[in-house]
Records
---
Amino acid sequence: MKNIWAFTTFLFIFMFVILIFYHLYYRMNIKHITKQLKEIMQLKDTNQLLTVIAKQRDITQLVNQLNNLMRDVRRSRIRIKRLNRNFRQSITNISHDLRTPLTTASGYVQMLQASAVNEEALEYLAVVLERQNMVKVLLEQLFEYVRIESGEITYGHIPVDAKKILTDVLAMYYDDFYKIGQEPTVRLPEKPCMVQGDEQGIKRVFSNILFNAIIHGKGEYCFEIQEVGSSYVFTFSNLSEPMTKDDLDYIFERSYTKDKSRNKKTTGLGLTIAKEITKRLNGTIEAFYNNGKFSISILFPKIS
């Protein structure tokens, strides 16, 4: 009887020890897999797969499934990169192929305008020229957006006076405001507004926002710069048609436009490009609507 009891006790202790070791190896495998996953997630392009310390059936099956999933994700990523590269190349080719005939067609329309015999013909030709110019702007913005997304366009990070850049851009659009009978309110600080950025990039951001304001705005244009803490805030505001929260949420999305009929001279890419450039210059951009006024605020960290 004592022998049976001793054997049972020994067997129990042995099984308990085995269970402890199994549990320890289980935990070691889980920690090992978790560490590998973190390392793999930090690497953008890697063919590394998961391994196990000890071959435990359930853990091994889990690792095999995770490895299969990672292989599928990598194959999908490669296909997406190839599709994006082909898409960018197609946009580039289309842009180049259409620029020349559009320029030629615009030249002929202008010649017809010079020889038009009545007001009706001039009106029709003006509409044709306006549509051609709209297509040219669309192609240019598509081309620019593709180049920005692909990283082909790079932006410097050097000290620039954003106040001077905004002043120059406002001067560029003086005639446009004059044509619509509007004189914007401009509030600028007396001192330069030095930020770390790229002159041409910031100029493109301001230009796109002003163009959008002229096309969609209803009046009471106001452009100002405020020094808030360690940043400069550039605000562009104007009266606008009513805007919903969805409009504000999607206003910077690619090809989004509130004018669903597309009757206005808009491509839906101007604000998207402005946002992409702002992000690359370490700034932030937001849209607001309050009491009938639409505004866009851009924040750039200031430098002394």
---
Amino acid sequence: MTKFPMTVQGARALEEELKHLKTELRPQITQAIAEARELGDLKENAEYHAAREQQGMVEARIRDIEGRLQNAQVIDVTAIPHTGKVIFGVTVEIANVETDETVVYQIVGDDEADIKQGKLSVSSPIARALVGKEEGDVAAVKTPSGTVEYEIIEVRHV
């Protein structure tokens, strides 16, 4: 089975969500189903059907999270010696060579990616261009509007 890379923070967030679903939401839904059953005829009981539907969605999410965690290869970048090289999990500051605009991204697994929070998927074009390069190197990223070059300013293991 193929393992997928995940940061320690990403694994922790999934574990917390899983705990919340199992210990808080699951019992609430079970209670809601029990209360809806007491209302009588289940065929025309909207509360019962809504609770059962919610139960199905929560159980599917629980299975999804458990599967993701089971197939995750959790990588703690803080335990890896700093070499200045861009690898999975590092936080990298890059500058657009043309505009001098700088941005900071953390390279994370596909499940953790959130560009608004500066978390860049390891399979994204920018991350693929950066991985393996070192501080001071220039990485060329192919975009729909042409190739953009980024200089790697700093690599941090945080």
